[in-house]
What does this fold into?
Amino acid sequence: MGDKTLVVIDDDDLVGQLVVEAAQQVGFSASAVQDFEALKLVVDASEPDVMVLDLVLPNVDGIQVLRFLADRGCKAKIWLLSGFDPKVVQTAERLGVSLGLTIVGALNKPVSVTTLKDELRKHLRESGDFTVHDLEQAITDDHLFVHYQPKVRLAGDRTGDSGGDLLTLTVDDAPYEVMGFEALARWRNPHGAMVSPVKFIPVAEHSRMIEPLTQSVFRQVIEALAHWKSRGVRLNVAVNISPSTLADLDLPDRLAEKAYAVGVSPDQMILEITENSAVTEDPHFMDVLSRFRLKGFGLSLDDFGTGFSSLIQIYRMPFTELKIDRSFVSEMDQNDEAFTIVRSIIDLGHNLGMRVCAEGVETLSAANRLIELGCDYAQGFYFSRPVGLPDIMRRIGTASALDGTRRIS
Ligand code: C2E
Ligand code: MG
Ligand code: MG
It folds into this structure.
Protein backbone atom coordinates (compact mmCIF):
# COMPACT_ATOMS: atom_id res chain seq x y z
CA MET A 1 0.00 0.00 0.00
CA GLY A 2 1.00 3.56 -0.45
CA ASP A 3 4.38 4.73 -1.52
CA LYS A 4 6.60 2.02 -2.98
CA THR A 5 10.29 2.42 -2.35
CA LEU A 6 13.13 1.66 -4.74
CA VAL A 7 16.86 1.68 -4.07
CA VAL A 8 19.46 1.53 -6.81
CA ILE A 9 23.08 0.66 -6.13
CA ASP A 10 25.57 1.65 -8.79
CA ASP A 11 29.03 3.17 -8.42
CA ASP A 12 28.31 5.29 -11.47
CA ASP A 13 26.32 8.23 -10.14
CA LEU A 14 24.86 9.02 -13.57
CA VAL A 15 23.32 5.56 -13.88
CA GLY A 16 21.99 5.86 -10.31
CA GLN A 17 20.32 9.17 -11.08
CA LEU A 18 18.86 7.87 -14.33
CA VAL A 19 17.21 4.96 -12.51
CA VAL A 20 15.99 7.21 -9.69
CA GLU A 21 14.35 9.62 -12.15
CA ALA A 22 12.69 6.84 -14.13
CA ALA A 23 11.38 5.28 -10.89
CA GLN A 24 10.07 8.60 -9.61
CA GLN A 25 8.24 9.23 -12.87
CA VAL A 26 6.46 5.91 -12.49
CA GLY A 27 5.57 6.84 -8.91
CA PHE A 28 8.21 5.22 -6.69
CA SER A 29 9.92 6.94 -3.85
CA ALA A 30 13.49 6.27 -5.05
CA SER A 31 17.06 6.77 -3.88
CA ALA A 32 20.54 5.82 -5.09
CA VAL A 33 23.61 4.59 -3.23
CA GLN A 34 27.10 4.23 -4.64
CA ASP A 35 28.77 1.60 -2.51
CA PHE A 36 28.14 -1.52 -0.48
CA GLU A 37 28.47 0.19 2.92
CA ALA A 38 25.76 2.68 2.06
CA LEU A 39 23.56 -0.13 0.76
CA LYS A 40 23.94 -2.02 4.06
CA LEU A 41 22.73 1.04 5.95
CA VAL A 42 19.70 1.43 3.71
CA VAL A 43 18.72 -2.22 3.91
CA ASP A 44 19.14 -2.32 7.68
CA ALA A 45 17.10 0.85 8.15
CA SER A 46 14.20 0.06 5.81
CA GLU A 47 12.80 -2.60 3.58
CA PRO A 48 12.86 -1.36 0.00
CA ASP A 49 10.14 -2.82 -2.24
CA VAL A 50 12.37 -2.87 -5.28
CA MET A 51 16.16 -2.91 -5.73
CA VAL A 52 18.23 -2.35 -8.82
CA LEU A 53 21.72 -3.81 -8.32
CA ASP A 54 24.83 -3.18 -10.32
CA LEU A 55 26.76 -6.44 -10.35
CA VAL A 56 30.12 -4.73 -10.47
CA LEU A 57 31.06 -2.47 -7.60
CA PRO A 58 34.38 -1.34 -6.17
CA ASN A 59 35.79 -3.77 -3.55
CA VAL A 60 32.86 -6.15 -3.70
CA ASP A 61 31.22 -8.21 -6.38
CA GLY A 62 27.54 -8.60 -7.08
CA ILE A 63 27.48 -12.14 -5.73
CA GLN A 64 28.63 -10.96 -2.30
CA VAL A 65 25.91 -8.34 -2.35
CA LEU A 66 23.33 -11.01 -3.16
CA ARG A 67 24.57 -13.16 -0.27
CA PHE A 68 24.31 -10.21 2.10
CA LEU A 69 20.70 -9.56 0.99
CA ALA A 70 19.81 -13.24 1.37
CA ASP A 71 21.27 -13.26 4.91
CA ARG A 72 19.10 -10.25 5.77
CA GLY A 73 16.00 -12.08 4.48
CA CYS A 74 15.49 -9.37 1.86
CA LYS A 75 12.00 -9.54 0.29
CA ALA A 76 12.54 -6.85 -2.34
CA LYS A 77 12.04 -7.52 -6.03
CA ILE A 78 15.51 -7.28 -7.52
CA TRP A 79 16.65 -6.26 -10.97
CA LEU A 80 20.26 -6.92 -11.84
CA LEU A 81 22.16 -4.35 -13.80
CA SER A 82 25.24 -5.17 -15.77
CA GLY A 83 27.36 -4.30 -18.73
CA PHE A 84 28.68 -7.87 -18.74
CA ASP A 85 27.99 -10.60 -21.13
CA PRO A 86 24.47 -11.95 -20.54
CA LYS A 87 25.81 -15.34 -19.34
CA VAL A 88 27.39 -13.79 -16.25
CA VAL A 89 24.14 -12.07 -15.45
CA GLN A 90 22.18 -15.29 -15.92
CA THR A 91 24.48 -17.11 -13.50
CA ALA A 92 24.05 -14.37 -10.91
CA GLU A 93 20.32 -14.51 -11.47
CA ARG A 94 20.20 -18.26 -10.84
CA LEU A 95 22.40 -17.95 -7.77
CA GLY A 96 20.17 -15.19 -6.36
CA VAL A 97 17.07 -17.31 -6.83
CA SER A 98 18.74 -20.31 -5.19
CA LEU A 99 19.54 -18.08 -2.19
CA GLY A 100 15.84 -17.33 -1.84
CA LEU A 101 15.89 -13.85 -3.35
CA THR A 102 13.23 -12.53 -5.74
CA ILE A 103 15.22 -11.77 -8.86
CA VAL A 104 12.77 -10.44 -11.41
CA GLY A 105 15.10 -9.76 -14.29
CA ALA A 106 18.23 -8.25 -15.68
CA LEU A 107 18.77 -4.92 -17.34
CA ASN A 108 21.67 -4.37 -19.68
CA LYS A 109 23.77 -1.27 -19.66
CA PRO A 110 23.34 1.26 -21.13
CA VAL A 111 19.97 1.22 -19.42
CA SER A 112 16.98 2.05 -21.57
CA VAL A 113 14.74 4.37 -19.58
CA THR A 114 11.67 3.19 -21.49
CA THR A 115 12.36 -0.48 -20.73
CA LEU A 116 13.04 0.32 -17.09
CA LYS A 117 9.81 2.27 -16.71
CA ASP A 118 7.83 -0.48 -18.43
CA GLU A 119 9.29 -3.08 -16.07
CA LEU A 120 8.56 -0.97 -13.00
CA ARG A 121 4.99 -0.29 -14.12
CA LYS A 122 4.54 -4.00 -14.64
CA HIS A 123 5.66 -4.56 -11.08
CA LEU A 124 3.05 -2.12 -9.77
CA ARG A 125 0.35 -3.75 -11.86
CA GLU A 126 1.21 -7.23 -10.67
CA SER A 127 1.16 -6.21 -7.05
CA GLY A 128 -2.35 -4.75 -7.61
CA ASP A 129 -1.09 -1.75 -5.74
CA PHE A 130 -0.69 1.95 -6.15
CA THR A 131 1.60 4.78 -5.28
CA VAL A 132 0.80 8.07 -3.60
CA HIS A 133 1.46 9.66 -6.97
CA ASP A 134 -1.22 7.49 -8.66
CA LEU A 135 -3.74 8.48 -6.01
CA GLU A 136 -2.89 12.17 -6.18
CA GLN A 137 -3.23 12.08 -9.94
CA ALA A 138 -6.61 10.36 -9.72
CA ILE A 139 -7.90 12.89 -7.19
CA THR A 140 -6.57 15.85 -9.18
CA ASP A 141 -8.08 14.48 -12.39
CA ASP A 142 -11.34 13.75 -10.55
CA HIS A 143 -11.20 10.04 -11.34
CA LEU A 144 -12.57 8.86 -8.03
CA PHE A 145 -16.22 7.91 -8.13
CA VAL A 146 -18.92 7.09 -5.64
CA HIS A 147 -20.93 3.98 -4.92
CA TYR A 148 -24.15 4.22 -2.98
CA GLN A 149 -25.35 1.71 -0.42
CA PRO A 150 -29.05 1.90 0.49
CA LYS A 151 -29.97 2.60 4.07
CA VAL A 152 -33.43 1.23 4.83
CA ARG A 153 -35.98 2.17 7.45
CA LEU A 154 -36.71 -0.62 9.92
CA ALA A 155 -39.00 1.15 12.34
CA GLY A 156 -41.30 4.11 12.71
CA ASP A 157 -43.52 6.14 10.50
CA ARG A 158 -43.04 5.05 6.90
CA THR A 159 -43.68 8.52 5.55
CA GLY A 160 -40.96 9.71 7.97
CA ASP A 161 -38.33 12.27 7.13
CA SER A 162 -37.72 11.50 3.49
CA GLY A 163 -40.64 13.67 2.42
CA GLY A 164 -41.39 13.01 -1.28
CA ASP A 165 -42.26 9.74 -3.00
CA LEU A 166 -41.17 6.58 -1.28
CA LEU A 167 -38.43 4.48 -2.79
CA THR A 168 -38.72 0.87 -1.74
CA LEU A 169 -36.44 -2.10 -1.89
CA THR A 170 -37.88 -5.59 -1.75
CA VAL A 171 -35.87 -8.39 -0.18
CA ASP A 172 -37.27 -11.89 0.46
CA ASP A 173 -40.70 -10.52 -0.49
CA ALA A 174 -40.57 -7.86 2.24
CA PRO A 175 -40.60 -4.20 1.15
CA TYR A 176 -38.35 -1.74 2.96
CA GLU A 177 -38.39 1.99 2.52
CA VAL A 178 -35.06 3.35 1.33
CA MET A 179 -34.50 6.50 3.34
CA GLY A 180 -31.18 7.24 1.73
CA PHE A 181 -27.73 5.99 0.84
CA GLU A 182 -24.23 6.03 2.20
CA ALA A 183 -21.74 7.43 -0.32
CA LEU A 184 -18.59 5.30 -0.49
CA ALA A 185 -15.53 6.43 -2.45
CA ARG A 186 -14.31 4.06 -5.15
CA TRP A 187 -11.11 4.04 -7.18
CA ARG A 188 -9.63 1.95 -9.96
CA ASN A 189 -5.84 2.21 -9.96
CA PRO A 190 -4.02 3.03 -13.23
CA HIS A 191 -3.67 -0.71 -13.87
CA GLY A 192 -7.40 -1.28 -13.76
CA ALA A 193 -7.66 -2.93 -10.33
CA MET A 194 -10.24 -1.71 -7.79
CA VAL A 195 -8.54 -0.47 -4.63
CA SER A 196 -10.37 -0.55 -1.32
CA PRO A 197 -10.99 2.75 0.48
CA VAL A 198 -9.61 1.02 3.56
CA LYS A 199 -6.29 1.25 1.70
CA PHE A 200 -6.48 4.58 -0.08
CA ILE A 201 -8.28 6.76 2.48
CA PRO A 202 -5.40 6.59 5.01
CA VAL A 203 -2.92 7.38 2.23
CA ALA A 204 -5.04 10.37 1.17
CA GLU A 205 -5.18 11.49 4.79
CA HIS A 206 -1.41 11.34 5.17
CA SER A 207 -0.66 13.01 1.85
CA ARG A 208 -3.07 15.93 2.41
CA MET A 209 -5.17 14.76 -0.51
CA ILE A 210 -8.14 14.00 1.71
CA GLU A 211 -9.56 17.46 1.34
CA PRO A 212 -9.84 17.43 -2.49
CA LEU A 213 -11.07 13.81 -2.21
CA THR A 214 -13.84 14.85 0.20
CA GLN A 215 -14.75 17.77 -2.07
CA SER A 216 -14.99 15.45 -5.06
CA VAL A 217 -17.23 12.96 -3.21
CA PHE A 218 -19.33 15.82 -1.92
CA ARG A 219 -19.77 17.38 -5.34
CA GLN A 220 -20.84 14.05 -6.84
CA VAL A 221 -23.31 13.49 -4.01
CA ILE A 222 -24.86 16.95 -4.38
CA GLU A 223 -25.21 16.41 -8.13
CA ALA A 224 -26.91 13.07 -7.51
CA LEU A 225 -29.31 14.59 -4.97
CA ALA A 226 -30.17 17.39 -7.40
CA HIS A 227 -30.75 14.85 -10.15
CA TRP A 228 -33.01 12.66 -8.00
CA LYS A 229 -34.90 15.75 -6.98
CA SER A 230 -35.59 16.51 -10.64
CA ARG A 231 -37.15 13.03 -10.81
CA GLY A 232 -39.34 13.78 -7.79
CA VAL A 233 -37.34 11.65 -5.35
CA ARG A 234 -36.09 13.19 -2.13
CA LEU A 235 -33.50 11.09 -0.35
CA ASN A 236 -30.72 11.48 2.18
CA VAL A 237 -27.08 10.71 1.50
CA ALA A 238 -24.44 10.12 4.16
CA VAL A 239 -20.88 11.19 3.39
CA ASN A 240 -17.86 9.98 5.34
CA ILE A 241 -15.70 12.78 6.67
CA SER A 242 -12.13 12.29 7.87
CA PRO A 243 -11.20 13.97 11.14
CA SER A 244 -8.40 16.00 9.55
CA THR A 245 -10.97 17.69 7.32
CA LEU A 246 -12.82 18.91 10.39
CA ALA A 247 -10.02 21.26 11.35
CA ASP A 248 -11.17 23.48 8.49
CA LEU A 249 -13.42 26.07 10.12
CA ASP A 250 -15.00 27.24 6.85
CA LEU A 251 -16.05 23.77 5.78
CA PRO A 252 -19.67 23.97 7.01
CA ASP A 253 -20.24 27.22 5.09
CA ARG A 254 -18.61 26.00 1.90
CA LEU A 255 -20.50 22.70 1.85
CA ALA A 256 -23.83 24.39 2.64
CA GLU A 257 -23.32 26.95 -0.13
CA LYS A 258 -22.53 24.22 -2.65
CA ALA A 259 -25.68 22.35 -1.71
CA TYR A 260 -27.94 25.42 -1.85
CA ALA A 261 -26.45 26.40 -5.22
CA VAL A 262 -28.11 23.35 -6.84
CA GLY A 263 -31.30 23.45 -4.79
CA VAL A 264 -30.29 20.74 -2.34
CA SER A 265 -31.00 21.29 1.33
CA PRO A 266 -28.24 20.43 3.84
CA ASP A 267 -30.76 18.41 5.84
CA GLN A 268 -30.59 15.84 3.03
CA MET A 269 -27.01 15.16 4.02
CA ILE A 270 -25.55 13.30 6.96
CA LEU A 271 -21.87 13.54 7.77
CA GLU A 272 -20.39 10.36 9.18
CA ILE A 273 -17.43 10.65 11.51
CA THR A 274 -15.85 7.55 13.00
CA GLU A 275 -16.04 7.17 16.73
CA ASN A 276 -12.30 6.90 17.19
CA SER A 277 -11.72 10.32 15.74
CA ALA A 278 -14.87 12.13 16.73
CA VAL A 279 -14.69 11.98 20.41
CA THR A 280 -12.32 14.71 21.26
CA GLU A 281 -13.09 17.88 23.06
CA ASP A 282 -10.94 19.98 20.79
CA PRO A 283 -12.80 23.33 20.61
CA HIS A 284 -12.34 23.54 16.81
CA PHE A 285 -13.92 20.16 16.42
CA MET A 286 -16.92 21.16 18.50
CA ASP A 287 -17.13 24.45 16.63
CA VAL A 288 -17.22 22.77 13.20
CA LEU A 289 -19.62 20.02 14.28
CA SER A 290 -22.01 22.49 15.89
CA ARG A 291 -22.06 24.72 12.83
CA PHE A 292 -22.75 21.74 10.59
CA ARG A 293 -25.76 21.00 12.78
CA LEU A 294 -26.91 24.61 12.79
CA LYS A 295 -26.86 24.58 8.99
CA GLY A 296 -29.08 21.53 9.01
CA PHE A 297 -26.64 18.69 8.22
CA GLY A 298 -27.17 15.46 10.13
CA LEU A 299 -24.20 14.10 12.09
CA SER A 300 -23.61 10.40 12.54
CA LEU A 301 -21.11 8.73 14.86
CA ASP A 302 -19.77 5.92 12.64
CA ASP A 303 -18.40 2.52 13.70
CA PHE A 304 -19.85 3.07 17.15
CA GLY A 305 -18.72 0.62 19.79
CA THR A 306 -15.12 0.33 18.61
CA GLY A 307 -13.79 3.56 20.13
CA PHE A 308 -13.41 4.85 23.61
CA SER A 309 -16.03 7.54 23.92
CA SER A 310 -17.49 8.20 27.31
CA LEU A 311 -21.19 8.83 27.76
CA ILE A 312 -20.59 12.42 28.76
CA GLN A 313 -18.64 13.06 25.56
CA ILE A 314 -21.38 11.61 23.37
CA TYR A 315 -23.92 13.61 25.30
CA ARG A 316 -22.03 16.85 24.65
CA MET A 317 -21.49 16.30 20.93
CA PRO A 318 -24.30 17.33 18.57
CA PHE A 319 -24.73 13.92 16.91
CA THR A 320 -28.10 12.96 15.47
CA GLU A 321 -27.33 9.30 14.80
CA LEU A 322 -25.26 6.39 16.10
CA LYS A 323 -24.07 3.78 13.62
CA ILE A 324 -23.44 0.43 15.24
CA ASP A 325 -20.16 -1.03 14.03
CA ARG A 326 -20.62 -3.99 11.74
CA SER A 327 -18.38 -6.23 13.83
CA PHE A 328 -21.22 -6.49 16.40
CA VAL A 329 -24.06 -6.63 13.89
CA SER A 330 -22.54 -9.44 11.85
CA GLU A 331 -21.96 -11.49 15.02
CA MET A 332 -25.29 -10.86 16.72
CA ASP A 333 -26.85 -14.03 15.31
CA GLN A 334 -24.30 -16.36 16.85
CA ASN A 335 -22.90 -14.44 19.78
CA ASP A 336 -24.95 -13.41 22.82
CA GLU A 337 -22.47 -10.73 23.87
CA ALA A 338 -22.59 -9.11 20.43
CA PHE A 339 -26.40 -9.18 20.61
CA THR A 340 -26.31 -7.51 24.03
CA ILE A 341 -23.98 -4.80 22.77
CA VAL A 342 -26.27 -4.10 19.80
CA ARG A 343 -29.29 -3.89 22.10
CA SER A 344 -27.47 -1.60 24.53
CA ILE A 345 -26.32 0.77 21.78
CA ILE A 346 -29.87 1.02 20.43
CA ASP A 347 -31.16 1.86 23.93
CA LEU A 348 -28.33 4.31 24.55
CA GLY A 349 -28.90 6.13 21.25
CA HIS A 350 -32.64 6.38 21.82
CA ASN A 351 -32.23 7.54 25.40
CA LEU A 352 -29.96 10.32 24.18
CA GLY A 353 -32.47 11.32 21.49
CA MET A 354 -30.54 9.92 18.51
CA ARG A 355 -31.52 7.64 15.64
CA VAL A 356 -29.64 4.35 15.46
CA CYS A 357 -28.45 2.65 12.27
CA ALA A 358 -27.02 -0.88 12.16
CA GLU A 359 -24.42 -1.52 9.47
CA GLY A 360 -23.22 -4.85 8.11
CA VAL A 361 -26.63 -6.57 8.13
CA GLU A 362 -26.04 -9.73 6.13
CA THR A 363 -28.95 -12.01 7.05
CA LEU A 364 -32.75 -12.01 7.34
CA SER A 365 -32.47 -13.11 10.94
CA ALA A 366 -30.21 -10.14 11.85
CA ALA A 367 -32.68 -7.80 10.10
CA ASN A 368 -35.59 -9.28 12.04
CA ARG A 369 -33.82 -9.09 15.37
CA LEU A 370 -32.95 -5.44 14.72
CA ILE A 371 -36.62 -4.73 13.96
CA GLU A 372 -37.58 -6.38 17.28
CA LEU A 373 -35.01 -4.26 19.10
CA GLY A 374 -36.48 -1.10 17.58
CA CYS A 375 -33.40 -0.14 15.57
CA ASP A 376 -34.31 2.74 13.23
CA TYR A 377 -32.26 2.04 10.11
CA ALA A 378 -30.12 -0.70 8.62
CA GLN A 379 -27.53 -1.09 5.93
CA GLY A 380 -25.83 -4.21 4.71
CA PHE A 381 -25.29 -6.76 1.99
CA TYR A 382 -28.61 -8.42 2.92
CA PHE A 383 -30.42 -5.39 1.53
CA SER A 384 -27.93 -4.32 -1.11
CA ARG A 385 -24.24 -3.95 -1.77
CA PRO A 386 -23.00 -0.47 -2.61
CA VAL A 387 -23.91 0.19 -6.27
CA GLY A 388 -23.00 2.77 -8.91
CA LEU A 389 -25.09 5.83 -9.68
CA PRO A 390 -26.27 4.58 -13.11
CA ASP A 391 -27.63 1.48 -11.40
CA ILE A 392 -29.67 3.54 -8.97
CA MET A 393 -30.85 5.92 -11.67
CA ARG A 394 -31.98 3.02 -13.81
CA ARG A 395 -33.92 1.51 -10.93
CA ILE A 396 -35.53 4.82 -10.01
CA GLY A 397 -36.35 5.43 -13.67
CA THR A 398 -37.92 2.04 -14.44
CA ALA A 399 -39.82 2.03 -11.18
CA SER A 400 -41.51 5.37 -11.61
CA ALA A 401 -44.39 3.77 -13.47
CA LEU A 402 -45.28 1.61 -10.47
CA ASP A 403 -48.28 2.71 -8.42
CA GLY A 404 -46.71 5.89 -7.03
CA THR A 405 -44.17 3.85 -5.12
CA ARG A 406 -40.72 3.70 -6.62
CA ARG A 407 -39.11 0.33 -6.29
CA ILE A 408 -35.43 -0.32 -6.63
CA SER A 409 -35.42 -4.09 -6.77
P1 C2E B 1 -17.73 2.81 6.73
O1 C2E B 1 -18.05 4.27 6.64
O2 C2E B 1 -17.99 2.16 8.03
O3 C2E B 1 -18.56 2.13 5.54
C1 C2E B 1 -19.16 0.87 5.61
C2 C2E B 1 -18.29 -0.18 4.98
O4 C2E B 1 -18.90 -1.46 5.21
C3 C2E B 1 -18.21 -0.06 3.45
O5 C2E B 1 -16.92 -0.52 3.08
C4 C2E B 1 -19.29 -1.04 2.98
O6 C2E B 1 -19.08 -1.51 1.67
C5 C2E B 1 -19.11 -2.13 4.01
N1 C2E B 1 -20.33 -2.94 4.17
C6 C2E B 1 -21.61 -2.53 4.08
N2 C2E B 1 -22.47 -3.54 4.33
C7 C2E B 1 -21.72 -4.62 4.60
C8 C2E B 1 -22.03 -5.99 4.93
O7 C2E B 1 -23.18 -6.40 5.04
N3 C2E B 1 -20.98 -6.81 5.15
C9 C2E B 1 -19.69 -6.39 5.04
N4 C2E B 1 -18.72 -7.28 5.25
N5 C2E B 1 -19.35 -5.12 4.72
C10 C2E B 1 -20.37 -4.24 4.50
P2 C2E B 1 -15.99 0.26 2.08
O8 C2E B 1 -16.79 0.86 0.96
O9 C2E B 1 -14.86 -0.65 1.75
O10 C2E B 1 -15.47 1.47 2.94
C11 C2E B 1 -14.62 1.25 4.02
C12 C2E B 1 -14.38 2.50 4.82
O11 C2E B 1 -13.66 3.48 4.06
C13 C2E B 1 -15.68 3.20 5.22
O12 C2E B 1 -16.21 2.55 6.35
C14 C2E B 1 -15.16 4.60 5.52
O13 C2E B 1 -14.62 4.68 6.81
C15 C2E B 1 -14.03 4.76 4.51
N6 C2E B 1 -14.52 5.56 3.37
C16 C2E B 1 -15.20 5.17 2.26
N7 C2E B 1 -15.47 6.22 1.46
C17 C2E B 1 -14.97 7.33 2.09
C18 C2E B 1 -14.92 8.74 1.77
O14 C2E B 1 -15.46 9.23 0.75
N8 C2E B 1 -14.29 9.56 2.68
C19 C2E B 1 -13.72 9.06 3.82
N9 C2E B 1 -13.12 9.93 4.64
N10 C2E B 1 -13.75 7.77 4.16
C20 C2E B 1 -14.36 6.91 3.30
MG1 MG C 1 -19.54 5.34 7.10
MG1 MG D 1 -19.02 2.23 9.56
Summary: The longest strand covers residues 174-188. The chain has 16 helices and 19 strands. Confidence is low (pLDDT under 50) at residues 158-164, 399-407.
